[in-house]
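Design a sequence for this backbone.
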C-alpha cells in the first residue's frame, strides 16, 4: 500500500457512538462528523435527513439562528447510494460565520 492510500485510510474513518456508525473525515487538520449520522445516533430516527432539515427550520424560526452557518458541506462516502455525496458536517472546534466557536 502506498503512502497516499495510507493517508486516505488514516484520514477517513467511521466513529462509533452508542454502537452506531458516524462518518468522519479529516478536513484542514480537524475531524468533521456527519450531522445526519449524529442525528440518527441520537434520535434513532428512520429518516435522519428529514429530521435534520426540520430541525434547521425550527431553530431558525425560534431564534433567528441558522444551524447551517456552523456546518460545512463536505464529501463523504454513502453506502446506500454508492460513491461520495456532499453532506453537512460539524467539526469539534468549528466556528460560525462570525468566527465564534460553536457547539463545543
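Sequence:
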Amino acid at each position: 500500500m502506498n503512502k497516499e492510500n495510507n493517508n486516505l485510510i488514516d484520514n477517513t474513518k467511521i466513529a462509533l457512538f452508542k454502537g452506531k456508525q458516524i462518518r468522519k473525515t479529516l478536513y484542514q487538520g480537524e475531524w468533521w462528523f456527519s450531522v445526519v449520522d449524529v442525528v440518527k445516533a441520537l434520535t434513532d430516527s428512520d429518516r435522519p435527513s428529514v429530521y435534520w432539515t426540520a430541525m434547521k427550520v425550527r431553530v431558525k424560526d425560534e431564534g433567528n439562528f441558522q444551524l447551517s452557518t456552523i456546518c460545512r458541506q463536505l464529501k463523504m462516502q454513502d453506502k446506500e447510494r454508492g460513491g461520495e455525496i456532499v453532506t453537512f458536517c460539524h467539526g469539534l472546534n468549528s466556528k460560525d460565520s462570525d468566527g465564534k466557536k460553536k457547539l463545543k
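The chain has one domain: 3-91.
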